[in-house]
Amino acid sequence: YNEVLVRKLEEKNTELEQSIKALQKAHDSIAELNVDLERRVRERTAELQAALDNVKKLSALLPICSYCKNIRDEKDYWRQVDEYINRHTGTQFSHSVCPTCYVKHVQPLLDEMGIGKPDKGVQL
Questions:
Q1: How far apart are CA 74 and CA 49, in angstroms?
Q2: Calpha distance 3→7 (Å, rounded)
């Protein structure tokens, strides 16, 4: 009876050793595949980043009207520059008149309307 038990234990032990070897081989194979997968993910991520950079460069080319300076958006609508930038970046604009445009555009209108120059305290 003891010999039968010892033989069965030895058989089980042999089976377990074979199972452990098979599991170790599977583990090594999975680890190797994981390393390869991580390498491929890094390469693909770099490719996608390069593609995204190209898209950003291409989207930075804005079709702008030579006359009114409106910009054509992705839906083929023409929008004012400030509206376009606001929609794409959230940037808020305040409007003013630069000194050159004041002299060129605003002052002639004021002169035509008989309105004098602004007080010295008014900043252009």
A1: 22
A2: 6
